[in-house]
Amino acid sequence: MLLQAVDQRAPADDCIKLGIMIAERAPRVALLTMGDASARRARDAEGVPDPQAQDYDEEVAEALAAADARWLGRLDPALDDELMVAGRAAWQVLAGAATGTRMSGRLLCMAHPYGVTYLVACWERPRAD
Question: CA-to-CA distance for 57 and 62, rounded, in angstroms?
């Protein structure tokens, strides 16, 4: 078992390279990738959502549901601070690990208590018949 932390400020290319390196360690690799989506779901004014944060979270949720590694690989690190995103780097490590592999994905949960969006998804290789 290998525990690997990634700095949430790591550049996208570094994250993808790390994911590729992790995936090449063994013929079968499982990753538990953790990180928050936007923590700007609510603005200072109560009940007023931040539309940019909502769009970002919904797009990430769609990419996770579709196991779209390419889309996750293109996430812009410049939005991390602006939208208070802590998961971008971890998702890009996941994207790197899935490079060249056909995956199926499912979004299991999307919740945003306290103005923070939490996403739970599962990616796996489709079984060969």
Answer: 9
